[in-house]
Specification:
This protein is 70% helix and 0% strand. The chain is built from 4 helices and no strands.
């Protein structure tokens, strides 16, 4: 997976949720659309599910909610 290292580094960070949010914004700054960022996170989430890493998967899904807007307005990553 192309972005696996960035995801793993974010998950090991002392504040993984915030680091994953920053990773999503980084992908967007590199030109990925909202849908592409969401799909990138979905691919990694599926990888975590296969590896039975439920806690990490939950963090990814929390950030995915912020990507698609299924969260409070102040936590949305895209308009």
């Amino acid at each position: 997976m192309k972005f696996q290292t960035e995801f793993e580094n974010s998950l090991r960070h002392e504040e993984p949720y915030n680091q994953l949010r920053q990773l999503a914004l980084h992908f967007a700054a590199q030109g990925q659309t909202q849908q592409q960022v969401y799909e990138t996170f979905e691919q990694f989430r599926a990888h975590l599910r296969e590896a039975n890493r439920e806690q990490d998967e939950d963090l990814i899904m929390d950030v995915m909610d912020c990507i698609c807007g299924y969260c409070s307005p102040q936590n949305r990553l895209f308009d």
